[in-house]
Fold each of these.
Amino acid sequence: QIFNQHNAEAPNLEQAFHRMAQMEPNLDHDVSWFLLPSYWAKMVVAFISFLCFANSYDGDFVFDDSEAIINNKDLRAETPLGDLWYHDFWGSKLSSNTSHKSYRPLTVLTFRINYLFAGGFYPVGFHVINIILHCTISVLMVDVFSILLGGLQFSNKGRRLNLAPKSSLLAALLFAVHPVHTECVAGIVGRADLLCALFFLLSFLGYCKAFRENKEGHTFSVFWVLVSVILGAIAMLCKEQGITILGLNAVFDALVINKINLLELIRKLLYKDKSLENAGLLRKGLLFRITLLMCGGATILYIRWRIMGTGPPAFTEVDNPASFADSLFVRAINYNYYYSLNAWLLLCPWWLCFDWSMGCIPLIKSVSDWRIIALAALWFCLIGLICQALCSEDSHKRRILTLGLGFLIIPFLPASNLFFRVGFVIAERVIYLPSIGYCILFTYGFSLLSKQAKKKKILAVAVLGILLINVMRCALRSSQWRSEEQLFRSALSVCPLNAKVHYNVGKNLADKGNQSAAIKYYREAVRLNPKYVHAMNNLGNILKERNELHEAEELLSLAVQIQPDFAAAWMNLGIVQNSLRRFEEAEQSYWTAIKHRKKYPDCYYNLGRLYADLNRHIDALNAWRNATVLKPEHTLAWNNMIILLDNTGNLAQAEAVGREALALIPNDHSLMFSLANVLGKSQKYKESEALFLKAIKANPNAASYHGNLAVLYHRWGNLDLAKKHYEVSLKLDPTAPGTKENYNLLRRKLEQLQKKGG
């Protein structure tokens, strides 16, 4: 498995490395920074990275965590493990039209393991793993940066040498404390980026191991090249960006191992120079290794394509408005503006937001927009760096700048909209890997400034200040990610024009029962985005609960007009129409909802309620039965079936349904209560009493439970216990009229018995 170079005149690789070490300038000579032994440098990086994000360990599940974890059936034990390979990140089938095609089975597998060991959805374990992953990645960055900044060289014993210990420590610290990483670490869904980065770096380090000379004198190992390809595949199975490491390995091979001068190579290709071999293209097996990388990458992409299918992901205009612009010019201008904003987040990560869509960044529609300046600044800097990377006479400078630009740009390409439409405008999580390139360029810039500066200590103190500010910013941002309320409110000042921010603040308030405040934010979301159907739906629901039915109907009607297949809005419109006693329209709305979402148990439940109001008992029972078939734990549908059968005198059937329901949901006290009522009427007093007592034990403050148990004892002739439970029921709910009447009847009966006994 070792590729042997059949070139007798090839110099000994180790001697060449040592000569290179003597000839090339060392970046550390110009860097005024701390020099620590490798072990201590890694310990410092691990501790600082832990310090930045430690306060997120006990945070809640926030934002996308709900869909990716709590509502993802792939985490539960009853879902076969094999399904993970055919579902997307959110648990939907990859073949579904609604799938986002985000294929990350290994990330979902780690969530499943978390869930298994925690025994449920307890976020602490999920957060701790994320923090550990970031600390591990930051420690690995010390080794990665030592190679990227100092070159790849080995000792006589085959140990890799760190020729840039100070620079690699500084770059690793910059990476560890960058605030833009907070979303990946403090948001559990960010684990996809963390796992991808981990195997991305391991793939790179594995590729570097391929060039460690062995005792036989072979120049590189095919085994380690293949290991690198496999690790790249694993990185891609964690997140799509992982595949880009294969391209970066090829760039590293060409620049560092073969020391190819790209400008010289381009010239020779243009002029069809036959001395390409002298340019380094064929030396040291470069073409063979690149062929291995290309074949590996093509195989990985083909397998992923076969599993994922050929259909593109389904995104909407609100997710990525620029990609829906009719004009190619508008699309190009806005894509470049997004790139400049991503670059700004790396340079100045002060304004961070959980979501940058829905009007947060208005489209640039003409060249007169002042934001064009940001594009010009970005390309001015990039072109300047590219020119230096290609044309500089200093080979050391060319290598570092090219590697820095490579690690900045190549991992970002899958999120660039160049190859396919992505489902976001800006996403801080996708900058996790490109920030490696930023740290290389920052460290190199710092070394150039240190070389020119007379007072190097002041410069070092300034960089220390930047690191300290970033640590504090990370800690503050991590605390904001601990709860949805803090996270959503933190976005109001960053993206006040983002309708989704206002929507999420409103939703959070509604979940906490603060409907008045929620209405305000939902109205603002609809004002900012008049086509925001989800905001209309939620606002309509609140207005429905507040009995403001006519406005609720207007909002929900508009929502289904804008999005005719919005099943939830159709169902809620049906509920409002039912409340307005427009039964035929309500029935039509329910059936329209079911047409667009065939497996919709809640809609069948509401349809059953409509039929019950219309005394269409058979239809009601059928609708509720459909609800329980689709969702066996649908307690309300089971209860309504039992109560309807009870009220219509079908006690035997009601009992059968009640027993069936309790077999499926044995700990539901409301089902125990309903079945106990039926058994009492069937004079099965002992069994009825047992169920009543069990229901009361589960929910001791339910006045109706005590009241109906008292009725049972009353019928049964156990008058003292009946009196006791009537009194408990009245204490819990003094206004209950039926209980009060029954209690008065019992008291009169007890008085009569006392008189007879006297």
Amino acid sequence: VNLKFGVRHPEARTGTETDTCTACAGTLILEFAALSRFTGTSIFEEYARKALDFIWEKRQRSSNLVGVTINIHTGDWVRKDSGVGAGIDSYYEYLLKAYVLLGDDSFLERFNTHYDAIMRYISQPPLLLDVHIHKPMLNARTWMDSLLAFFPGLQVLKGDIRPAIETHEMLYQVIKKHNFLPEAFTTDFRVHWAQHPLRPEFAESTYFLYKATGDPYYLEVGKTLIENLNKYARVPCGFAAMKDVRTGSHEDRMDSFFLAEMFKYLYLLFADKEDMIFDIEDYIFTTEAHLLPLWLSTTNQTISKKNTTTEYTELDDSNFDWTCPNTQILFPNDPMFAQSIREPLKNVVDKSCPRGISRAEESLGSGPKPPLRARDFMASNPEHLEILKKMGVSLIHLKDGRVQLVQHAVQAASSLDAEDGLRFMQEMIELSSQQQKEQQLPPRAVQIVSHPFFGRVVLTAGPAQFGMDLSKHKAGTRGFVATIKPYNGCSEITNPEAVKEKIALMQRGQCMFAEKARNIQKAGAIGGIVIDDNEGSSSDTAPLFQMAGDGKNTDDITIPMLFLFNKEGNIILDAIREYEAVEVLLSDKAKDRDLEMENMDQKLSENDSHKQNSEEATSASQDVGAVSEEPEEGENSDVTDPDSLSPAHADSDSVSISNQDSYVPGTDEASAPEPACTQGDHQPQEQKTETESNSKVNWDNKVQPMESILADWNEDIEAFEMMEKDEL
């Protein structure tokens, strides 16, 4: 809702949203039901229930899992990975708590159905790993985000204490290693995202585990949290979020949830009964640790409780225990129960962090070498994959095109193969860390400079860690593009005549980037563009991608190489299909259109809106007249002039790529007569001189009235406004 214009007013610009996360849609029922119960107005609870019903109906029926992001109009899953962390977490929490607060059996039945799927597919004790909803046996990633730290607390509420203790202990070991829980960490407990915005989920689970077990161990855990906060996060005006848990650097922020949740749970953890001015057992916590009274379940019941849940899976009866467990039942005469579960996990973090092979050890050749070296590994090689499988190493293809490796020694063919797998992983970790230490290069630009784009289209490109450094060659590399054969560029190019003196287009995959570069350079290409083979990938949503070398000396590669994601690459491919001859500029940043091109575009605009001006231009010069009367010849011939890239008045950064054609007048002029291009190719210097001199004639002999200039400006403004409207 736009607070100024409402929903339906055009200026509100609402109604364009299409997606929401599962937690966003599924974390309304407690507050909205409370609002209905307090006010006696049922509409709030009705709509919150409708949102929950919608998600339940759209669950994946075979796995009973839900995705992270859903299209609010169609109900299609946009992101089809499923876990218990970011994007889903509080949906599960509110199903169980809605049953506790409102007493509706259908909420508990839904929660238990989901919980069975979570424990079947996502829970890999002590880890909780995201999976694909359609292929739940396949992990979607090999890292976990810190928001899943709430889940042990929810398991306590459910009464499933053992896995809660296991996951909580694993998280505590990560905290002891890094002082705080990183925003994301890998399955071998390395930092994946280093931030920590003082999240309270781990403190929440610590409080609930202490309530369930009475084990003083969890008081020690709470003490550690407080000491770390005071030692590392406390600043003169409060507590600062950690920018990087590895360096201890701060961000200038303290989120409201830190006060609402962290301090509250820590206070309750250490509070004695006499410290409380009310009975905490009479309330339930919302996901933001606000308290709602349990008596709401019997107040103003405007919604008829009926079981709308359908199509349940046959589950273990114990999963449907509807009584709240207590410590006497959970730990019969065994105060050491929780400790016995924690003990095997005491060193899980340190044991799972393999020590990198030192260069001294490698040079001495100590120990046997694995049958496959990390630097030789190719993800597309079936023989390599078979060796990995034998060593207990599994390969996971991520959505952004990267590949992750995970080793499970128990899955190796033998103990010797498991040792080989460990050595391979150690080599791979060192190789990866070396690449990460290399200087991160800034993004590059691919600018389409031929008709009808003239530099208006600028595509964000990833750099290569080899080949020509475009930051040191300010002019960049300019040329027409050509698609190579084979398209993957992994063998000798079979159409060198089409590639020579051109910028080669090729597809990602099948071989190393450096190998592609060598093959097109041998065929005579002056540059290369690698297009991502992952459908729908885009620089808008994916992080900057750098093309690494092949671990060997790449000094022999002298041409520039750039990487385009799938969406940006298709823009060039579509341009080739429509205009055939497409010229691009590879550079460190987009170049502005020069004055000459601006004057030419101005004359074209005058030709469209002021016929008399074209006649004057014709009398001034026959060549300039050709530009005015036949814009396609003039434009096409001038494309070959290296100095004329794009109209200076068009800000390429602000122009939407998807709507370029709506801005360019007369896009059907692509079928310009070929001789004009030929003439421009053979006589670029003459063409430039004539155009410059004719520009002088026009400005010296024909003084434009202010009204005409303003009219031209207004046309440009209207064109940009139309583009913005089309974009919306």
Amino acid sequence: MAELESLETAAEHERILREIESTDTACIGPTLRSVYDGEEHGRFMEKLEARIRNHDREIEKMCNFHYQGFVDSITELLKVRGEAQKLKNQVTDTNRKLQNEGKELIIAMEELKQCRLQQRNISATVDKLTQCLPVLEMYSKLRDQMKSKRHYPALKTLEHLEHTYLPQVSHYRFCKIMVDNIPKLREEIKEVSMSDLKDFLESIRKHSDKIGETAMKQAQQQRNLDSIVSQHPRISGGKKSKKEVCASSDLEVKNTSPMSEQDSGILDVEDEDEDEEVPGAQDLVDFSPVYRCLHIYSVLGARETFENYYRKQRRKQARLVLQPPSNMHETLDGYRKYFNQIVGFFVVEDHILHTTQGLVNRAYIDELWEMALSKTIAALRTHSSYCSDPSLVLDLKNLIVLFADTLQGYGFPVNQLFDMLLEIQDQYSETLLKKWSGVFRNILDSDNYSPIPVTNEDVYKKIVGQFPFQDAELEKQPFPKKFPFSEFVPKVYNQIKEFIYACLKFSEDLHLSSTEVDDMIRKSTNLLLTRTLSNCLQNVIKRKNVGLTELVQIIINTTHLEKSCKFLEEFITNITNVLPETVHTTKLYGTTTFKDARHAAEEEIYTNLNQKIDQFLQLADYDWMAMEPGSKASDYLVDLIGFLRSTFAVFTHLPGDVDVHSTMSGKVAQTACMSACKHLSTSLMQLLLEAEVRQLTLGALQQFNLDVEECER
């Protein structure tokens, strides 16, 4: 059994040795491992040494067999060594020479290497700068645009910079700084553009009156042009019509870029001569700040914020504009400035409406106009009520009409203004009546109540031209001669016509029909006759110091004025072209006025006569206990009868035509005589029946009878 194991061990060692001989050295580890894992490594070492000795013997045999060749090889090698040494020396020498010769080349190569490196760096730098320069140029352009207040172009540049240029060079630090600054720049543009808008709004507020003045002047020119064209239809050319002016203005606006670089506010315009073309109201205003700010806020996505801010500020300005000054009613300039500001405000808003998309809309404009209309009408009602000068009221009316026509030309409804003018017309009539009341008082107070003397034909024709009077008998009389009436007749007649003209002036441009104008004039004239003139005549008649001669002359004058009423009717018909036969035409009440005045004068005559009689009767001093009567009538009665004779002589010798003569002599004289006699008889009877008279003598009764008989004679 031990022998068998020994044989197996020997076979295994033999296998390992063969494996060691045939295996690569790198893979011999596992083989040796198997030897050391076994227990017979001593025996294996013996076998290995025996195998080494065996191989050494074989190597020795082989070397002995090839020894001569080895010697020859050594000899050859020795020869080669000598040649190799020579070659080495030559190579060393050549290398030394080459090194010496290559030093300059090496230096040049180093320089070339550095140049190539610099070239690469420069090329890379140029490439990077080529990428960065557009960014820097755009940023510089952005700063320049903001410095020159070109905010809308600056915003466009900022958009290009952010979305096109910066992404290409985003890894550079300066680009990151730019990216961080972009929101700040946007906010700065936003704030600066809003500041420009605020300056624009403030400038517009301050210059609204200038804008309105220009618009109203333009409307006035258009009215004048329309008037000329209506009178001369064939005339063409000349000044632009309002629509042409507006069209040209709109064209200018369309050509105005929101990037316009003009300063905000009002453009300076010198005062134009009346003969020159008045610039359109929009031509005075540079709206570019509004357009720029609108576009900027739209691009930034804050359009709604901008619209709300603009409308809010303009509403505040509208309230300020619509607040009239407290002393506006004192002068026409106060009203004019008030209207100019309102017109200027709405001209601007109308222009904004038509040149922007949605910044303001028609509903917003209509709301503002309704507010303005109500406040304006309320202010005009209040302030016009303080005005007592008809000339100022008339000028105010013309100004309101121009104000209404101007705004109507921009599409605003103005019917309420014309309705209010009809209210002011009543006030105007009242101021006219007050003015004419003073005129009539002055005429009546300055009149001498004597027939007008005429010394020649020219004076006669002048008076006849002033007052419609015809009398064939008076015309046949030689000069000098007298008109039956005093000077206040033609003066009053002409003042009535002047009043009618004044009423007509107010009705101009109110868009009233001829019938309405005629009705207005007739009603106002009736008030003048029945109230103003009638009161003035009544005051003259009721004066304490008025004499019977003056009263008689007043009767004559009112008779002639009464007859002239038909000529006043014709005068109104001629200026209004409305026939008196037209339905609803108001009739003049002048006849009634002058009849009432004449009756009042007659009553005053009767009253004055009775008062005079009473004054004479106060002088009566009867001695009711006299035993004998006097030889003649009482002195007071003789004086009374003398006064009555002279008074009735005035009635008897009245100048004038047959009608007036017969009227005065017949009616007034007879009525006055009857009234005086009746009053005298009644008064004499009262003397007898007085309570103080307790006893009467026959002589006293005979004296009283003598006085009565004197009265009868």
